[in-house]
Amino acid sequence: MKAMILAAGKGTRVRPLTYDLPKPMIPILGKPVMAYLIEHLARYGVTEIMVNVSYLHEKIEGYFGEGHQYGVQIGYSFEGYTNDQGEVVPEPLGSAGGMRKIQDFGGFFDQTTIVLCGDALIDLDIKSALFEHKRKGALASVVTKEVPWDSVSSYGVVVSDENGRVRSFQEKPSRQEALSNFVSTGIYIFEPAVLDLIPAGRQFDIGADLFPLMTEKGLPFYAQHRPFNWIDIGSVKDYWEVCQSVLLGEVAHLDVPGIQVEDGLWVGLNTAIDWNGTRIQGPAYIGSGSRIDAGVTIVGPTWIGHGSHVCEGASVVRSVLFEYTRVLPDVSLDEMIVFKDYSVDRSGEMRHISDEDAEEWANARDRRSRRRVEISNEVN
């Protein structure tokens, strides 16, 4: 069995995280979500993996290389072109169109292949899923999960009969139009013949185009209703909730890194904590090279990325701070994600560091630890 990871999208619903990161590179416990997928595939002996890339492709390719550190082989298919000014312009072909491009180039899909979206944590029993796919003689299989009815509009809805044969596929229908609350998890198993259904050289999507075509033709296309954990990072709110669940230990096989120095508190290397008046209520992780000043309050679940600095009197509650974040003195961050120049609250409201009311955090590599407005007043 081979694998393909879909990693060419822009991840617009997870901005601002994806202003500087492709969605598969968003970190969970300090490690890109795509790394967990590759490790999971390797555990099941799937060692030949193609990845289609486009937006910020160099960050994915630079991090994963050819996959030797994971015991696999990774190849990349870039979707885009170089314009007359020599600039690289991403131009995704759609999930199915990207597969066809790979096939036309080198014939990679010459055996059963599992295709996965690069932005979810899973613990799917791949061996069992492959067995069911083969037993039913499927040309294609889609792994589904049941979701609440009020969430169906965020997913591709799969309608199948009592034998699992897919009868229709609805791409993000409204609650009123949805015919099922079983949705695609973005995990598919394909036989090579599926590639012949995908037109070459144009955008073509698996959910919106390929699956409706297969149901229309009456091809052996099956849904698998399989128990497994599937954590989809569809929005900033989802990301915040995933980080909370992981730090609370609610996600199996994901362990907090660092050294546990007391109940609920993990720290990385060379971390400095001034305990004078400081209160830390876990679970919390404080990354390597971070500094926690006196009088700080940290309430978990909280993740503080490496090289960060929480200044005196500050409070960080149920938040995620990316690396090199400085929380300024006496500031309170409550249920926030801070990523470089942006912060996002639990509801998804975004602020830029230049906003007048956003003098709460800074770049920890900047030696100024006071609010810029205070410095400006002193200069005036």
Automatic annotation (TrEMBL):
Q: Which GO terms describe its molecular function?
A: transferase activity
Entry-linked CDD domains = NTP_transferase (cd04181)
Is Transferase among the key words of this record?
yes
Q: Name one Pfam family in it.
A: NTP_transferase
Ranges of residues in domain Nucleotidyl transferase: 2-245
- Keyword Transferase on entry: yes
The protein's UniProt keywords, in alphabetical order, are: Transferase
Q: What is this protein called?
A: NTP transferase domain-containing protein
